Amino acid sequence: MKIAILGAGESGVGAALLAKAKGLEVFVSDKGEIKEQYKAKLATAAIPFEEGTHTLEKILDANEIIKSPGIPDKAAVIQEASKKEIPVISEIEFAGRYTDAKFICITGTNGKTTTTLLTYHLLKNAGINVGLAGNIGESLAEKVIDNKHDYYVLELSSFQLDNMYQFKAHIGVLTNITPDHLDRYEYSMEKYAASKLRIAQNMAGADFFLYNADDENIVSAFDSASFGGTTVPFSLKGAENAKVYFEGDKIKVTAKFYEGTVNTSKSSLIGKHNQYNTMAAVAVAKLMGVADQEIEKQLETFQNAEHRLQPVGVAKEVTYINDSKATNVEAVWYALEGIKQPIIWIAGGVDKGNDYSTLVELAREKVKVLVCLGKDNEKLKETFGRVVPIIAETTSIDYAVRLSRSLATPGDVVLLSPACASFDLFDNYEHRGQRFKEAVEKIVLKK
Asked: Where along this sequence does the record place binding of ATP (predicted)?
């Protein structure tokens, strides 16, 4: 059995190591430059690889190709594989063949990382033998080599789901579907939604699909009549079919035999979007048999991933929040909606075809200053010019923070929530968030 692996990042190298461990003949090809840490892993395992090119003769000699999520189906090498009818799968599909562990899989345009981390936190601290992998930044395939866990919590992107066929989740979670990455889906929301709904494929009656019943895109795309598993809809808006919902600060779960009432008043997560994320994670914990009191205790101790509505400092009674991960309009809507204080909003970057109209009323109500941080800010200025009293622009995050400090009054929040990609000024959203934190630290030290 010959395996060709395209892409030598976390998922590709993990798949290569698993394939080698299972006695398969492996070749790794990356059209870009391979990071030294991954080269070292491949060399140690004596796995042949190339970088800077794709040698088609070697790749198309394989019985199966494992494709890294970032490579689109329209890439020339994938098109050539298709002509030769060579199966192309994802690392997750491949890894799933080599373990009897059950999978708890989480996807969604927004909220999937928070939901994944919270779910893992609740289960692990309840004593369940659970691993964490997927889009969160760790290779499932590499973890499966040792196969130490009974369950895995996986964050899955639509790109990972696209090349999964036989794989099945025991519990699947879909947080929401909003326009994103449409260039990979022929600018079709229907095709993007279909990709996300692969999270529920192959399920049987003992498997559970948790989904946001308030999300119109999910409701219209999900064919519940032909679904083979058990549905667990969650809702904040009183959906009639909801089995998970809020009553005050308490989450009620009425999913089959898994009933519970969980108080969330001590949770560190803020905003309506995090109520959805928390409902999903709590429902998974209940389906896994975790006691209500244990869930409540762990909600209080949870710390979210960086760059997601992360408080990074307070100076002169002004709070600075890093939400650099908010790279689309929907994520920013949740940030603006969740913060109750007056906001100085830092936004901008590489626009992805954004429609800012849904933010106008929230901006009118809450935003006192908009600082545009990007090389091209015309769309932001045009949309919010008559809505926000003060608009400034800069390409310096240090200046953006200093300006925000000078315009803030006690009780305000300075919020970095860009609604855009970061690549005009930064390497990625993490780099942008880290630079924001560093700029805030300078202010906090001077307070």
From this structure: 108-114
Is 114 labeled as ligand-binding?
yes
113 is in an annotated binding site: yes
| Residue 411, annotated as binding a ligand | no
CATH level 3 topology of 2-89? Rossmann fold (3.40.50)
How many CA atoms within 13 Å lie on the side-chain side of 121? Answer: 21
At 141, phi and psi to the nearest 5? -60, -40
Is residue 349 annotated as involved in ligand binding? no
Task: Kindly tell me if the per-residue pLDDT of 433 is higher than 90.
Answer: yes
377 annotated among ligand-binding-site residues: no
Q: C-alpha 93: how far from its chain's center?
A: 19
Q: Which helix (H) or strand (E) holds 443?
A: helix 429-446
How far apart (Å, rounded) are the C-alpha atoms in residues 102 and 287? 13
CATH architecture of the domain covering 310-446: Alpha-Beta Complex (3.90)
Summarize pLDDT for 233-280 with one digit per residue, the tens: 999 999 999 999 999 999 999 987 789 999 999 998 888 889 999 999
Task: Tell which CATH architecture fits domain 93-301.
Answer: 3-Layer(aba) Sandwich (3.40)
Domain boundaries, the chain: 2-89, 93-301, 310-446
Whole-prediction pTM? 0.83
248 has binding-site annotation: no
- DSSP per residue, 253-300: EEETTEEEEEE-TT-S--SHHHHHHHHHHHHHHHHTT--HHHHHHHHH
pLDDT band at 137 (very low <50, low <70, confident <90, very high): confident
